[in-house]
Design goal:
This protein is of the alpha+beta class. The chain is built from eleven helices and four strands; from the N terminus they run H-H-H-H-E-E-H-H-H-H-E-E-H-H-H. A four-stranded antiparallel β-sheet has the order 1-2-3-4, with no helix packed on it. Strand 1 and strand 2 form a beta hairpin. The N terminus is likely disordered.
Length: 445
């Protein structure tokens, strides 16, 4: 019995520990997602793959050493006619062998040189693509985190509405029994209560979905999330940079721009590489070979050869392939240039949108905070008027709905404002973790 009691108490203690697990804030969720998110891990593997372009291109400029070994058994049948016209057949059975060692060092090879320089640009593109994936993670994690908080807050609002409407139904029923109320008051409160029950089911489903979406990113259960602290968004200072400064920063530091800039430089190297198809190549060659019994006339003979020298290759005519490759490379560079210009224009528009989302979003929050205070005061006044017989239950219900709407709009405006800050920092290429840490200040520790 004592053993069973101990195990029961231990189980209760473990359950209490699990229930009391600390909530995760935005920065903790981001750090976990940076290690566990499948898209980021795929981007990290793509970066490692892209970085291998450089050693592969460098290898084309370094010496190449090849060794060949061969040993064959030969069975030779020779048929000849003698002076009498009779055929005679002789058979030889012997082994032949060959051993060689070849060293080739490129001395002048423009295509390989430009290929190496191009590989440097492509590595920079891989780095920029990974940075873009990390910046996208900031937006995805921030969106999922704030959606989960919004879903939780929405559920709380619906539950508060349900409790309020339940109380209204009870109050209207008592008033009807006392002869001071009407059936219409009960029907109005009951219809709103029924709608609140339906909204509660939808809110619960949305809360479960958003929580699950966040768990997939961090690859672990999320027991709780830190909400806004008492200061709210006031914990964040105003933007220091102006809109033109943000646009300029995005044009210079955005990972998307960096990736296309690296691609443009690589396209320029491709033109030079294509033009170098007309250039000669020069290699230094050193060779050693040892062979024996090379053919039937040299049976039981061995040969050793050592050679060192240069090999010059001059392309004379390749059917117009080089000129075609040059035209193709020029067209590809033009395509990348136009893509870069289009990206910069679109980036400027997106930065302007998020900048206004931050600056105007803060003004909207202040306005909604005042609207919430006014709605709260109006509800208190309407309830007192209803108790005095001046207002009806329907008036109270309408004001209650107005208060809930104002509270929901304020919560949503705060989260939209925070998302605009995260997106703005992401578009401008600001350090990912630093931007998350800045926004994380508004959440309770």
């Amino acid at each position: 019995m004592t053993f069973a009691i101990r195990h029961t108490l231990l189980g209760l203690a473990l359950a209490a520990v699990c229930v009391a697990a600390p909530a995760m804030n935005l920065l903790q969720v981001y750090d976990a997602a940076l290690e566990q998110d499948a898209n980021v891990r795929a981007g990290r593997a793509a970066l490692a793959s892209g970085q291998e372009r450089l050693p592969q291109a460098r290898a084309q400029l370094l010496p190449v050493i090849n060794a060949n070994f061969g040993r064959n058994r030969n069975q030779l049948s020779t048929t000849s006619v003698n002076i009498l016209g009779n055929e005679s057949v002789s058979r030889d059975d012997y082994f032949s062998f060959t051993k060689s060692l070849l060293l080739r060092q490129p001395l002048f090879n423009l295509p390989r040189y430009y290929q190496y320089k191009q590989a440097e640009d492509l590595v920079q593109e891989s780095v920029a693509n990974y940075e873009r994936e990390v910046q996208n993670l900031v937006v995805r994690v921030g969106g999922a985190y704030l959606e989960a908080l919004l879903a939780s807050e929405s559920l709380k609002l619906v539950q508060a509405q349900k409790r309020q409407y339940t109380a209204m139904v009870d109050a209207a029923s008592r008033a009807l029994k006392a002869g001071t109320g009407t059936r219409t008051d009960i029907d109005d409160a009951q219809s709103r209560l029924d709608m609140a029950l339906a909204n509660e089911l939808e809110a619960r489903q949305n809360e479960d979905y958003t929580r699950r979406q966040l768990e997939l990113m961090v690859n672990q259960p999320v027991t709780g999330l830190s909400g806004l602290d008492a200061r709210g968004v006031d914990a964040l200072g105003n933007l220091i940079k102006s809109l033109p400064e943000w646009v300029e920063l995005a044009s210079a530091s955005s990972p998307e721009v960096k990736a296309l800039m690296a691609r443009l430089q690589a396209a320029d190297k491709e033109i030079s590489k294509a033009k170098s198809g007309h250039a000669p190549t020069l290699d230094a060659v050193a060779q050693w070979s040892d062979s024996g019994n090379e053919n039937v006339t040299r049976i039981n003979s061995s040969f050793e050869n050592k050679a060192i020298g240069f090999q010059l290759t001059v392309p004379l005519y390749q059917g117009g392939a080089v000129n075609s490759q040059v035209r193709q490379a020029v067209a590809e560079k033009t395509r990348v240039e136009e893509s870069l210009e289009s990206l910069r224009r679109d980036l400027s528009l997106r930065v302007q949108k998020e900048y206004r989302g931050v600056t105007e979003g803060l003004l909207r929050i202040k306005a909604l905070e005042q609207a919430l205070r006014s709605a709260t005061q109006l509800l208190d006044s309407t309830i007192k008027s209803q108790m005095a017989g001046v207002r009806t239950v329907l008036d109270v219900l309408n004001v209650e709905q107005q208060l809930v709407t104002a509270r929901r709009d304020l919560i949503q405006a705060r989260y939209v404002y925070l998302m605009s800050r995260l997106r703005l920092s992401s578009l401008a290429g600001v350090d990912a973790r630093a931007s998350v840490a800045e926004v994380n200040q508004v959440f309770a520790p």
